[in-house]
Amino acid sequence: xxxxxxxxxxxxxxxxxxxxxxxxxxxxxxxxxxxxxxxxxxxxxxxxxxxxxxxxxxxxxxxxxxxxxxxxxxxxxxxxxxxxxxxxxxxxxxxxxxxxxxxxxxxxxxxxxxxxxxxxxxxxxxxxxxxxxxxxxxxxxxxxxxxxxxxxxxxxxxxxxxxxxxxxxxxxxxxxxxxxxxxxxxxxxxxxxxxxxxxxxxxxxxxxxxxxxxxxxxxxxxxxxxxxxxxxx
Length: 233
Known about the structure:
alpha/beta, 7-stranded mixed β-sheet, single chain
């Protein structure tokens, strides 16, 4: 699907209400376990776009250093609009959760339900999240000297570092919102989840005991059931 200067690759599985899943830093559509996709596709039309420079999506004319969270959100919108959907369910993991926040704030009428999974709301969030963001700048330097890192990974790191966050806008989210976090996530401290729950009107929070940043990889069936329970209710 064409999005401004780039062609965005994505996968569609199943039928029903569209459920768009936005991946985190460095992940492609292939990094989501097939068992999760198949479970969700029994109820929804699951759409998994590849972020710029990752998987089958190119960088277009944007350099990695100039990539932004907002541009990622516009890429997702191009896919949704191109498929002819006016309403979607939206799930974002980690950096994908940041993209999902921007999408929802830009196109509030399109998002019927929102799930934010192991993410944060920008540089003003709690200490652990700020620590993660501070680490992005050394990570960018590492990407320059480490050729095994893709342009897409570098682009995501730059986008996270440049993102001003959503702290002053989270109160504008009006759709039902579900926050899924783990208390053993070393990137997104549980405090971030509680802060976001206070800022998003009527947000529901589920904190998984022992849950890590990639707990969907460790417990795919439980993760899929949690997603189904929220979006199918």
